[in-house]
From TrEMBL:
Keyword Magnesium: no
Whole sequence portion shown: 87 to 384 of 385
SRP54-type proteins GTP-binding domain: residues covered: 271-284
Keywords, in A-Z order: Cell membrane, Cytoplasm, GTP-binding, Hydrolase, Membrane, Nucleotide-binding, Receptor, Transmembrane, Transmembrane helix
Compartments where found: Cell membrane; Cytoplasm
Name of the protein in question: Signal recognition particle receptor FtsY
Function statement: Involved in targeting and insertion of nascent membrane proteins into the cytoplasmic membrane. Acts as a receptor for the complex formed by the signal recognition particle (SRP) and the ribosome-nascent chain (RNC).
Membrane topology recorded in Swiss-Prot or TrEMBL: Peripheral membrane protein
Main localization (coarse): membrane
Cellular component annotations (GO), alphabetically ordered: cytoplasm; plasma membrane
Top EC group: hydrolase
């Protein structure tokens, strides 16, 4: 969490400082409220949540007057937007002696393969047995990349011949997982968004064949936080294709504006469960709403 704060401090902290400066003005006139709105929109929070936050702040200040502690007021309201009540636990355990199956989806380049590798490492550190399925058979490099992660983390990677059917790789990975009694199978998938119908067929088939062996316990949608509102369009498409149960926001260490957390949760009604904070093996962390808001405020 300290790391999250440090990583976010660079770009996102300015959101908090900007808002606090505005809220601390002697007179909160219309121009100031507009500046507050602009600041929130620039941080990728999205139109509806921004409007909601500004409305709440305005009515609160009408009743309570100028806040003595603007930071505390802003923290409360931002936390409300991020929604600390959402259940962010990962469903990595199966039932009836079967493994938990985590399907990882998202467009190419979002950070799926990296996330699968990092997540495997976290699970192994928790003494779980893990198997990986390299079902992104479309890109040979993705399979190699996952194999490298497997070696690094010390877990088995199930892969097919180049260009093989993603569903058959996913099927085989879960089949072996069931037979060997592993705790969790993580399945990496391909994300060719150019062709929605094709992707829908492919992911649908992957999910169906897996479920012949064991229920999918978690569908993680990986989104690159630096793509801002464009990422929202991808998020919408994927949520129409599969029942997403959790979001992984990657590259929050880069130029991303943290407000995208609020926007995407709103859009999908699904919690951000993990955040990617770098390319290294340890750079994946559970999402913590309070720590996140503190990082936003700087
Ligand atoms: P995929 O195509 O969705 O499987 O994406 P990859 O896992 O291959 O990741 C694409 C690029 O993003 C790689 O260079 C990763 O190292 C990088 N990447 C993934 N997650 C993060 C992150 O949280 N922070 C940063 N800075 N880079 C990341």
């Amino acid at each position: 969490l300290v790391r999250l704060r440090q990583r976010l401090a660079g770009s996102q902290g300015t959101l908090g400082r900007g808002l606090l400066a505005l809220l601390s003005r002697d007179r909160l006139d219309e121009d100031t409220w507009e500046s507050i709105e602009d600041t929130l929109l620039t941080a990728d929070i999205g139109v509806a949540p921004t409007t909601q936050l500004v409305e709440r702040l305005r009515s609160r200040l009408r009743v309570e007057g100028q806040p003595a502690d603007a930071r505390a007021v802003l923290r409360e309201e931002l936390l409300e937007l991020v929604d600390p009540t959402m259940d962010r636990r990962l469903q990595v355990s199966g039932a009836d002696g079967k493994p938990g199956v985590v399907l990882v989806v998202g467009v190419n380049g979002a950070g799926k393969t990296t996330t699968v590798g990092k997540l495997a490492r976290i699970l192994v550190a928790e003494d779980r047995t893990v198997k990986l399925g390299a079902a992104d058979t479309f890109r040979a490099a993705a399979v190699e990349q996952l194999a490298t992660w497997g070696e690094r983390v010390g877990v088995d990677v199930v892969r097919g011949p180049e260009g093989s059917d993603p569903a058959s790789v996913a099927f085989e990975a879960v089949k072996q997982g069931v037979e060997e009694g592993v705790d969790t199978v993580l399945v990496d998938t391909a994300g060719r968004l150019q062709n929605k119908a094709g992707l829908m067929d492919e992911l649908g088939k992957v999910k169906r064949v897996i479920e012949k062996q064991a229920p999918v316990t978690e569908v993680l949608l990986v989104l690159d936080a630096t793509t801002g509102q464009n990422g929202m369009i991808q998020a919408r498409v994927f949520s129409e294709i599969v029942d997403v149960t959790g979001i992984v926001l990657t590259k929050l260490d880069g130029s991303a504006k943290g407000g995208i957390v609020v926007a995407v949760q709103r859009e999908l009604g699904v919690p951000v469960k993990l955040v990617g904070l770098g390319e290294g093996a340890d750079d994946l962390a559970p999402f913590d709403a309070g720590a996140f808001v503190d990082a936003l405020l700087g």
